Amino acid sequence: xxxxxxxxxxxxxxxxxxxxxxxxxxxxxxxxxxxxxxxxxxxxxxxxxxxxxxxxxxxxxxxxxxxxxxxxxxxxxxxxxxxxxxxxxxxxxxxxxxxxxxxxxxxxxxxxxxxxxxxxxxxxxxxxxxxxxxxxxxxxxxxxxxxxxxxxxxxxxxxxxxxxxxxxxxxxxxxxxxxxxxxxxxxxxxxxxxxxxxxxxxxxxxxxxxxxxxxxxxxxxxxxxxxxxxxxxxxxxxxxxxxxxxxxxxxxxxxxxxxxxxxxxxxxxxxxxxxxxxxxxxxxxxxxxxxxxx
Length: 294
Description:
Strand 13 and strand 14 (252-261) form a beta hairpin. The chain has helices at residues 2-21, 198-205, 280-283, and strands spanning 31-32, 35-36, 52-61, 64-78, 81-93, 100-103, 107-117, 122-131, 146-156, 168-179, 187-197, 217-228, 237-248, 252-261, 271-278. It has a single domain (2-283), classed as Beta Barrel (Porin). It is mainly beta. It has a twelve-stranded antiparallel β-barrel.
C-alpha cells in the first residue's frame, strides 16, 4: 500500500509539470496542418488529444494461443499536457506454455505535446509512463514496476514535389522500458510506420474517384520492434511487420493488421490486430474531451 501511495504522489506532480512547462496548442487527434496521423495499433501516435483506443490481438506463441484486449484512455489536463491510463486483459490457451488469464498491471503516464508545425506537417510527443507493480491479476501481473520514457513523432510528405508521394507519411516511437527489478532485462522499444492516406490524396492532391468506404482509408505498414539491452539477452531483437488498413472519420477510426514475425526468435505464426479508437475530443468536445485548464 505504501508503494501505491508513492506512485500516486508522483502522478499528482504531472499536471503541475504540465502547467509549469506551459501550454502548447492542442489539436483533435493527431493533426498537423492538413495531415491526420491515425492511431497506430502497435505503438503510440504523436498526438495527445482525448481518445479511447481499444485493440484486440490474436496470435500463436510457441504453440499456445494468446489473446490480448488492450485499452487506453487519454484525458487532456492543459492544452499541451494529458494524463493517460492503460491496461490489457490477457488469455493464454495452453500449448507448450502454461495457461494464464487475467489483467496485466495498470499503466499511467503523463504526455506532453513537444511541437506541432502545420506547414511541415510534423509533430512530436514526449511521455513518461509507470506500469505499477502488483496492480494486475496474480496469473498475469508482475511484482515489479516498469518506467518508460518515450518520444513519438509524425512527419507528413505534403511538401515533396512528387504529387504521388504527398499523401505518404512516417510515424515512429522510441522508448526504454526500465523495470525496478534489476534481474529483469531492460528493453529498447522502437517502432515506425509507413502510411498512405487516401483522404489526403483526394482532398488535397487529386480526386481519383474513390467512393465510400475506400475514400476514408489509410494504408499502413507498422514495424514494432524490441531490443533487449542486458541480463543475458543483450542485442537480441524481436518484432513484427504489420501491414493493414485504417479507416477514419470525424469521430472514430477502426483498423485491421496482420502480425508477421520478423525472425524465429519472435515466433513462426502470423497473428491479427483489430483496433477501434474513439475520438473523445470530437465526440465530447465540451466535457470529457476538453482540457481541464485552458
